[in-house]
Design goal:
The structure holds 2 protein chains of 2 kinds.
Chain A: H1 2-17, H2 54-58, H3 73-76, E1 94-96, H4 97-105, H5 117-122, E2 138-140, E3 152-155, E4 157-158, H6 160-168, E5 172-175, H7 180-187, H8 189-193, H9 207-213, H10 225-239, H11 252-255, E6 273-275, E7 280-282
Parallel strand pairs in A: 1-2, 2-4, 3-5
Antiparallel strand pairs in A: 6-7
Helix pairs in contact in A: 6-10
Chain B: H1 2-13, H2 22-36, E1 47-49, E2 65-70, E3 79-85, H3 87-90, H4 96-108, E4 112-113, E5 162-163, H5 170-186, E6 190-193, H6 203-212, E7 219-223, H7 230-237, E8 242-246, H8 252-257, E9 260-264, H9 265-280
Parallel strand pairs in B: 1-3, 2-6, 6-9, 7-8, 7-9
Antiparallel strand pairs in B: 2-3, 4-5
Helix pairs in contact in B: 4-5, 6-7
Classes of the chains: A alpha/beta, B alpha/beta.
Family (chain B): Belongs to the universal ribosomal protein uL4 family.
GO molecular function, one term (chain B): structural constituent of ribosome
Keywords (chain B): Mitochondrion, Ribonucleoprotein, Ribosomal protein
Chain lengths: ~290, ~300
């Protein structure tokens, strides 16, 4: 941005010596307008650059992958196991610790509240598309050394180093599974609340994700809390830092806030109805 | 008059006279205060309006912009105070190309072309074959209204109504406003007044004021409120080249249409608040979508 600042100042100084900018002396940038007329004769006339006869002139190009009579590459090998089921695989778009720190430093994320998919999407810089099989965010370790925030964050995938970086600062991290419908609600809560439908409960993870989310090493939301606190100490010893005591932290309440495995939004239970027009919540009777 | 021309030429020779850097301004204010900011006894003390960068920090703090606040209660110019302008709005990159795009858009989006020509079907007559296909020694024709005929239909002619409506991307419109305001300030065509309360409804007062201060000839006066006081309304009514506009209606075309732009302090604050909000909003990406009719 530095060069922009300098150029703007230079340009404004230059403008002081130039004639007044008026409607009459403005013109578009050179070559920014496309001429909608076809040139004649020597100005690109004759065949207008399309050549004589054939696919060049008629613009009927070969279909993708076609190799003019050869067995096409995509049919040459009968079996590609590494693509098996790729259309069903869950995607976890990455966000790095550096990105997260920048979002916090630029006030796009409030660290006094627990952070989940909604918080990240509401920052306006991150996008999640559940329809394209994106099942949440994974937190990657770029910018690990510069991560300084104390946060309570819930992501869908995180590596051991990332977990250590967050717990070293006195923060809490949890990995949790959300089914596509819950993700759809979390990505744009306001839009979903406008439907005026009671909040459904979150689904449990599919078979192949159960192992990950019940593992205390991944800080899975279905793992035994005692095993998690045990593993926090183990990780601190492994990475060689002193684990800050969150029990004595002033933000203890916030740091220990966690969603129920069936809960989608913080503070809202399944079955409740949020009326966004009247700003009221209708709760279940039982 | 001669003094005015001298003043103006001095500004050209010493271009830093109006828009000063922060450090030099403080020096100048101290030096010039006895003469330039001298106020008659009994009136308010000079007004200094600093910029509060708390909410929206500028991209660069090295390019602050300051401007004098002028009086409107007399023809004679008197500096009532000093206002610090936000650099993101009044010292933005002067994108002249985007200003041009805004002007073109403002001309086109409301323009409907009513040019109309008749096709061969719409021209009266021509249903009968003019002469037999063969045996006449003449070229074959099926209608006297064919485009080949004099008085025949027109091929690919203009059809009415043709709209030229399109929307310029939202942030090009925002950038158009900041660029134009910056250009106007840089070229000494932006003046700031304390309010629009002029003492008389006589148009001659405004004429004298504009001549005295080397404004214009055409002047656009902008206030935050859309209800202007009666005096200035009547005074500008007969002057076609002095126009009034509320700040919510400020646009690139009108700013360039007039030589001088005159903003009240309230209008400056309103414009800054609105433009800085748009430049800093976190859901800016949502404004980048396709234009939809009747959108909220």
């Amino acid at each position: 941005m530095a060069h922009l600042r300098e150029t703007s100042d230079k340009a404004l100084k230059l403008l002081r010596t130039l004639p007044r900018v008026q409607i009459g002396n403005l013109r578009p940038n050179p070559n920014s307008k496309q001429n909608d007329k076809r040139g004649r004769a020597q100005h690109g006339g004759d065949k207008h650059g399309a050549g004589n006869k054939g696919s060049g002139q008629r613009q009927n190009f070969m279909r993708l992958g076609y190799e003019t009579g050869n067995q096409p590459f995509y049919l040459r090998f009968p079996y590609e196991p590494y693509y098996k089921g790729h259309h069903m695989k869950r995607q976890y778009p990455p966000i790095s610790l550096l990105q997260l720190q920048v979002l916090i430093d630029t006030n796009r994320i409030d660290t006094s509240q627990p952070i989940d998919i909604s918080t990240l999407c509401n920052s306006g810089l991150l996008k999640l598309k559940p329809a394209e099989l994106e099942y949440g965010f994974q937190l990657t370790d770029d910018g690990l050394d510069n991560f300084k925030a104390k946060i309570n964050i819930e992501v869908q995938h995180a590596s051991e180093a990332v977990i250590a970086a967050i717990e070293k600062n006195g923060g809490v991290i949890r990995t949790a599974y959300y089914d596509p419908r819950s993700l759809h609600m979390l990505v744009n809560p306001k839009k979903w609340f406008q439907k005026g439908v009671p909040i459904p409960s979150r689904m449990l993870p599919p078979q192949d994700a159960v192992d990950y989310y019940t593992n205390p090493k991944n800080r899975g939301y279905l793992a035994n809390p005692e095993e998690i606190s045990q593993d926090r100490l183990v990780l601190a010893q492994k990475y060689g830092y002193e684990l800050p005591k969150i029990e004595k932290d002033s933000a203890y309440e916030m740091l220990t806030t966690a969603k129920d495995p069936r809960q989608v939004f913080y503070g809202l239970e399944p079955g409740w109805l949020v009326n966004i027009v009247d700003k009221t919540i209708t709760k279940r009777k039982d | 008059m001669l003094k005015n021309i001298l003043d103006k030429s001095r500004q050209v020779v010493f271009p830093v006279a109006r828009t000063l850097t922060r450090s030099s301004v403080h020096g100048n204010v101290v030096n010039e205060s006895p003469a330039a900011v001298a106020t008659p006894a009994g009136t308010k003390t000079p007004l200094i309006l600093p910029q509060n960068y708390g909410e929206y920090a500028p991209v660069s703090r090295n390019t602050p912009r300051q401007a004098w606040i002028e009086n409107t209660d007399a023809v004679q110019e008197r500096k009532v105070g000093l206002i610090e302008l936000h650099p993101d709005v009044f010292a933005a990159q002067p994108r002249v190309d985007i200003i041009q795009e805004n002007v073109e858009w403002q001309r086109k989006y409301r323009y409907v072309s009513f040019a109309q020509t008749k096709t061969r079907a719409e021209v009266r007559g021509g249903g009968r074959k003019p002469w037999p296909q063969k045996g006449m020694g003449r070229a074959r024709h099926g209608s006297i209204r064919s485009p080949l005929f004099k008085g025949g239909g027109v091929v690919h002619g203009p059809r009415s109504p043709t709209t030229h409506f399109y929307m310029l991307p939202f942030y090009k419109r925002v950038l158009g406003l900041t660029s134009t305001l910056s250009v106007k300030l840089a070229q000494d065509d932006l003046h700031i007044i304390e309010n629009v309360d002029i003492p008389t409804k006589d148009g001659q007062f405004l004429k004298d004021l504009i001549a005295e201060r080397n404004w214009g000839p055409s002047v656009l006066i902008v206030d935050e409120d859309h209800m202007f006081p009666a005096n200035i309304c009547q005074a500008t009514d007969e002057l076609g080249y002095v126009n009034l506009m509320p700040s919510f209606g400020l646009n690139v075309y009108s700013m360039l249409k007039h030589d001088t732009l005159v903003l009240t302090v309230a209008a400056v604050k309103h414009l800054e608040q609105r433009l800085l909000y748009q430049l800093n909003r976190s859901d800016a990406a949502s404004k980048g979508g396709k234009f939809k009719l009747d959108q909220v």
